[in-house]
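Record type: monomer structure entry
Structure origin: computed from sequence
Chain ID: A
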Amino acid sequence: MRIAFIVGLTLLLAACESTSEPTFRRPAWLGSPPRTIQAPDTVRAGVPFSATVFAAGSGSIQCNQPDGASVAQGIRVARVEIFVRALRGNVPCTDDLKYYPIPISLTFATAGVSTIRVIGTKQNSGTYALDSLERSVVVVP
């Protein structure tokens, strides 16, 4: 019993993010200007489709490695939060702007016009505030 507890605690601690790790996950910058969401204009209700959203950042991939997306689907809106993994500390990054693709899969269940809303950040005087970018798709039966 005690060994199972120690093994479980060790696995739990290993899964947690540590401040001593060299990287951390943060919301991705959408870019200036933000890159449009790539998705079909028309999709079928109930049928999954692929789309691509973009994280922007330095041309130095180690400064902002794409780290996936979190997708929450409603009836007419898909909310997509995009993330990057960034290095901790004072890291030199290049000033060139690059857009990194993040593929996603979406499904809208009902016919009509639906919205893909991408949530990331915008840069404003050295701070990063949440921002969004939207694209509509027509969902046919």
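Annotation 1: The beta strands are 23-27, 42-44, 49-58, 65-73, 77-87, 97-106, 112-124, 127-140.
Annotation 2: Residues 2-15 form the longest helix (14 residues).
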